[in-house]
Write a structure and sequence with these properties.
By secondary structure, the protein is an alpha/beta fold. It has nine helices and twelve strands. The protein has one domain: Metallo-beta-lactamase, Chain A (4-Layer Sandwich).
Length: 277
């Protein structure tokens, strides 16, 4: 099994989005401080049973006038995308000899635009999505919550993830993606209600493709929730489960916007658990 980082451009967010401050979303919108340019990672898993892509990154279409609704305060005041056509996932995958039209499965950790923006490159793939996010995104309040279902392709008809009551270490439920059980999906709610993560077990370490469970590894180790997640308690509980997994097995923790994720994957640098957790 091979796992590769796919960088699909960059994003800047408010510092209060990375680490929760008093004031909630209003604090995020009004925070004068911005992050550095952060990567937008998707992930390629080359598995003996087929090719799997985790998240699809962002699209260069975000630069087009009107792509983001002007009425939405988050897209107006709290996020800046920098994505060229060459950054998009289809061209990045070809560097690894993969045609998006031949990808077997796409797993979306959640349905925010920087994770689903490149989905239109995968019309032939089986697409797995968190049920809760999918229903929220299509609902009356979906756009208000920051989902952009108006940009989904007409053919987009994903398979909703249904977890089995099969514990996976510190997680009460899981869903195997491969017959050999080496790639599994686990529920990691908090950043969104339905957020999921993907674990690829190489036999030596567990590669934890974390989506937005935290913006970087240090925030996980501090169990510091982000500023946009709807459920602070849920985020902290998810952090505890990830850290408990890392106490029992070597875990390489890879959030989508951590500048150090690609290096940690290359060096198989495992997550250390603070003594006070």
């Amino acid at each position: 099994m091979e796992i590769h980082p796919i960088k699909t451009g960059s994003v800047k967010v408010k510092k209060a989005q990375q680490s929760r401050k008093t004031g909630g979303m209003l604090r995020v919108l009004t925070d004068p401080g911005w992050s550095e340019w952060l990567p937008i990672y998707a992930w390629l898993i080359k598995h003996p049973e087929g090719t799997i892509v985790v998240d699809t990154g962002e699209t260069s279409r975000t630069a087009q006038p009107g792509y983001f609704p002007r009425w939405h305060p988050f897209f107006r005041f709290a996020a800046i995308m920098k994505v060229s056509r060459d950054d998009e996932i289809d061209r990045q995958l070809k560097r690894y000899g993969v045609d998006p039209l031949d990808v077997d499965k796409v797993i979306l950790t959640h349905l925010h635009t920087d994770h689903i923006g490149g989905i239109y490159h995968f019309p032939n793939s089986k697409i797995l999505v968190p049920s809760t996010d999918y229903r929220e995104a299509k609902g009356m309040l979906g756009k208000l919550k920051g989902f952009l279902p108006q940009h989904w392709e007409s053919w987009f008809n994903p398979t909703e993830i249904t977890f089995q009551n099969r514990p996976y270490h510190s997680f009460d439920q899981s869903l195997p993606v491969t017959d050999d059980g080496s790639v599994v999906i686990v529920p990691t709610p908090g950043h969104t209600h339905g957020h999921v993560s993907v674990i690829a077990d190489t036999g030596n370490e567990k590669i934890f493709l974390a989506g937005d469970t935290s913006y970087n590894q240090e925030l996980l180790q501090k169990m510091q929730p982000d500023g946009v997640g709807p459920d602070k308690k849920q985020m902290i509980e998810t952090h505890k489960k990830i850290l408990r997994l890392a106490e029992s097995d070597p875990v390489v923790y890879l959030p989508s916007h951590d500048p150090e994720s690609a290096r940690r994957l290359k060096n198989k640098e495992v997550l250390t658990v603070p003594a006070n957790v």
